[in-house]
Specification:
Strand order of the largest sheet: 5-6-7-8-9
Structural class: alpha+beta
Strand content: 25-35%
Number of strands: 14
Largest sheet: 5 strands, antiparallel
Length: 297
């Protein structure tokens, strides 16, 4: 249910409630609002309200349209059967904890989608906890050959609802709060200050990377990635093989890095004519050489 409140514009009762109009659809309420709205009236303009969540709440025009029009929120998801499922994903690069849901509800009446008439389409729904405590959401409209992501703005009531769901699921799965889980993950991937660098607001490993950090941060195939600073003259003065050896040594303190790839990601402001290169490669031989040295000892 939606309503429009209009206000007395003149006289001693100016600013008091004049009339409440009730609507069965958000579109009808918004249409009437736009008919009555006049920029010169300022605070005496009508206001839009929804009883979504069990009590009347006022919304500005932009939020009202985003949250309720287009067949959205014809049901109150906080009153439906909603369950977190699968693993909890901690993504420190994006700064979120992600949770996937089973929605035992009419998703079309919530998202304004149209999947009920097409067995080959479905919705996957995710919420994201942020370190400041707020919750955001998105859904994917899936089909056999396509997947489209849509941001899904949440009402305050929905944020509270999904935050509680995520906290309870985190306690069940990880025996910790969301905040504790996130902070623990940060500790596990923490790189000492001398071995990391921030380029264009993103953190990277910074070469030369120690053997210990290679083992810790390389993938299952021992591929490692990090930033190396290179002066332009080093690119000009070396042939390709010499240059690859140079950035290999710059990344892992060895010329044994294999399958070396690199790309320019920034310009060093503190050192003239110096580039930041994102370098990656297979460090298997670097690690093996270390093992051989230990065996000889």
């Amino acid at each position: 249910m939606f309503k429009l409140r209009s206000y007395i514009k003149t006289g001693t009762e100016k600013g008091n409630l004049e009339e409440e109009l009730f609507f069965g659809s958000a579109e009808a309420a918004l249409e009437e609002y736009r008919k009555l709205f006049c920029e010169e009236l300022h605070s005496l303009n009508p206001t839009l309200w929804s009883d979504f969540g069990g009590q009347w709440k006022r919304y500005n025009e932009t939020d009202f349209e985003a949250l309720f029009t287009g067949g959205k929120r014809e049901i109150d998801i906080t009153k439906e059967s909603v369950n977190c499922c699968n693993e909890i994903v901690v993504d420190t690069e994006k700064g979120v904890i992600e949770t996937y849901y089973e929605l035992w509800a009419d998703v079309d009446r919530y998202f304004g989608t149209n999947t009920r008439d097409n067995d080959s389409t479905w919705v996957n729904f995710y919420t994201y906890w942020h370190p400041d405590g707020h919750i955001t959401a998105s859904y994917y409209l899936e089909a056999d050959d396509t997947s489209e992501e849509y941001d899904w703005p949440l009402t305050e009531e929905e944020q509270q609802f999904f935050r509680k769901k995520m906290e309870e699921y985190c306690q069940f799965m990880e025996h910790s709060s969301l905040k504790e889980l996130y902070e623990e993950e940060l500790k596990e991937i923490q790189i000492s200050s001398e071995h990391h660098i921030t380029v264009n607001r993103k953190d990277y490993l910074s070469g030369p990377i120690s053997q210990e950090d290679i083992q810790k941060f390389s993938d299952e195939n021992h591929y490692i990635e990090g930033v190396v600073k290179v002066h332009i003259s080093d690119m000009i003065d070396n042939n390709l093989e010499g240059f690859l050896d140079l950035i290999s040594i710059g990344l892992v303190d060895s010329d044994l890095l294999m399958d070396v790839n690199y790309s320019v990601i920034g310009l060093c402001e503190d050192e003239p004519d110096t580039l930041y290169l994102l370098v990656s490669g297979d460090a298997s031989m670097v690690l093996n050489s270390s093992d051989d040295e230990e065996a000889e000892v």
